[in-house]
Structure formats: structure tokens, C-alpha cells
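Entry:
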Amino acid sequence: MLMPRKSKYRKSHKCEVTGNETRGLELSFGQYGLKALEPIWLNSRQIESARRAMTRYIKRGGKIWIRVFPAKPVTKKPQEVRMGGGKGSVDHYVAVIRPGRVLFEMDGISKEVAKEALRLAAHKLPIKTKFISKDEA
């Protein structure tokens, strides 16, 4: 699972995901990519399952870049605990995704293979996504 080695603060505030992304809008490394169209908190498990789906389909043929990293800690109190008693302990980490963010990039494979691999990855994610490529942009 992806998680930060260390962070400045152990726990963070909850905040809504509003507005569109201003960074990470275009392909930087590969020829093909998967772009988010909705705002969400992406779990490290979801990112990992999408990565596995892509890797298995291309049979380690091309190169994959993961452009998002789960650095925001999400806390959770144990079950059946009464109100109060402070904030819960860190349960998992999420990546804050806004519309327009490139999630994954691929290179070294044909367009058809990349499209299918990214389609399989998109099925693992709980948001609408779009396939993008450098030759179209």
C-alpha cells in the first residue's frame, strides 16, 4: 500500500473537494493517460488495484507512471465508542483528486493495448475517467 514515510502532522482536517485541478492536467511522462472527471478522495487500495489491473493486462510490456500519491491521513474511531474522547487514530491515507487530474500514464505499448489497460484500471476506480493521449492533445 502507498503511504507517506513521515509527515509534518499526524492528523489532518476534513475538507470538501471543491473546484477544478490546476496542476497535473497534461501528460508529462508517457504517451497515454487516464484523467479524472469527478472530485474524490482516492484510497491507496483503489490506486493499487488499478495499478495491478494495468500491469497484468500489459504483461509488464510498457512503463506505467502513477501520478497521484495518498498523503492525506483519514482518522476513524473504533466501533461502539461513545461520543467525545478526542479525534480517532489514523485509519488510512487518501489522495485528494479534483476534476482534470491525470491519474496514470503509460508508454512503450500500442494505443489499443493502452486503451484497454486503462479501461480495466478505470473500472477499479469509483469515478468517471477519460482516456487521453499525446497525439490527440
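The two ends are 32 Å apart (CA to CA).
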